[in-house]
Design brief:
107 residues, mainly alpha, 3 helices, rod-shaped
């Protein structure tokens, strides 16, 4: 007949104390969630800024170009009226002098 080894009797109190010790120090879902939020708050914004920097730089450049174009357009707004006025004066002078107006190249 084989001898059966019996499990060593353990003090249930010691096991319970160990479990209590572990449980007291174990992170909860809320702890993990808060740690994750803190890491995201600290780590993600610089990553986003780095990725968006070329885009924002290009947008600033485009904004400058648009301002320059707007100024150019503002300067040109009166140009058609000035051209019409100059053509009218030229026609009047030609008529007064009895000159034939030049034939446009595209006519």
């Amino acid at each position: 007949m084989k001898k059966v080894k019996r499990a060593k009797k353990t003090n249930g109190k010691g096991v319970q104390e160990s479990l209590d010790f572990i449980i007291e120090r174990m992170a909860t879902k809320d702890d993990v969630r808060e740690i994750t939020r803190e890491i995201i708050r600290e780590e993600v914004p610089p990553m986003i800024d780095e990725k968006l920097k070329p885009v924002t730089d290009e947008m600033h450049s485009m904004r400058g170009d648009i301002k320059e174009l707007k100024e150019s357009v503002d300067n040109l707004k009166g140009l058609p009226k000035e051209i019409d006025y100059a053509l009218a004066r030229s026609s009047a002078i030609e008529k007064h002098l009895g000159l034939k107006p030049p034939v446009p190249a595209d006519a």
